[in-house]
Design a protein that fits this description.
Layout lengths: L15 E5 L13 H4 L1 H28 L4 H20 L22 E5 L13 H5 L1 H11 L7 H17 L4 H21 L19
Antiparallel strand pairs: 1-2
Helix pairs in contact: 2-3, 5-6, 5-7, 6-7
Keywords: Membrane, Transmembrane, Transmembrane helix
Pfam family, one: DUF4389
Protein name: DUF4389 domain-containing protein
């Protein structure tokens, strides 16, 4: 019998980096009112995601014609995903921090939640026609179940966040295993959304990389 093992290094490196910092000192009760505290972010994100869709359509034609994703448009869409991840990490996507998320598309080095996507020099003109609806469809279904899709709130990750909130309320601690799994689910979701939004040609692996840091 021949045993075939696939090392992590055998997979192409993902251009999507989603990381966070575990905080053992979270408030027992603050998570109960974060829906209200995060409301201004939710209102802004509705507008930003509408713009995200428009920018993605423009980028589609730019890639089809030139084979490149315009850097300014790329930076905006990555910023929208980054903002959404910070809000989800603070609120009901993870409940991973009590630090209020900043109102910016840019990365904030001191904030405990980060998302980066490497800008590709070239993208496939042919692949852009099918990857956002046909190739990514199975992954979109998985991402919706795991992390709630573009909102980074809902799905299995949202359920884990709720259980973490209950744990915080009664024990004052966020179970580390639950936290690591939650971040892994969001990492998978971010990779899928980046591919569906034409930000990369690297197909997201069917692999759950848990923990606050990328493998």
């Amino acid at each position: 019998m021949v045993t075939v093992t696939t090392a992590l290094s055998d997979y192409p490196k993902s251009p999507v980096t989603l990381e966070a910092e575990y905080d053992p000192g979270l408030s027992r009760w603050l998570w109960l009112v974060k829906w209200l505290l995060a409301l201004p972010h939710y209102v802004i994100l509705v507008i930003l995601w509408a713009a995200f869709l428009i920018v993605t359509v423009i980028a589609f034609f730019a890639i089809l014609i030139t084979g490149a994703y315009p850097r300014a448009l790329f930076g905006f869409n990555v910023g929208v995903m980054r903002w959404s991840w910070r809000v989800a990490y603070y609120a009901y996507g993870t409940l991973g921090t009590d630090r209020y998320p900043p109102f910016t598309l840019a990365d904030v080095p001191g904030y405990p939640a980060h998302l980066e996507i490497v800008h590709p020099e070239r993208l496939s003109r042919g692949l852009v026609l099918v990857k956002w609806w046909l190739l990514v469809l199975p992954q979109l279904l998985v991402a919706a179940f795991l992390g709630g899709g573009v909102r980074f709130a809902g799905g299995l990750a949202g359920l884990l966040a709720f259980y973490a909130g209950v744990s915080l309320l009664f024990t004052g601690r966020y179970p580390r295993g639950m936290y690591d799994l939650n971040i892994g689910l969001h990492r998978w979701t971010a990779r899928v959304m980046a591919y569906a939004a034409l930000l990369t040609d690297v197909y997201p692996p069917y692999r759950l990389d848990q923990g606050p840091r990328e493998p």
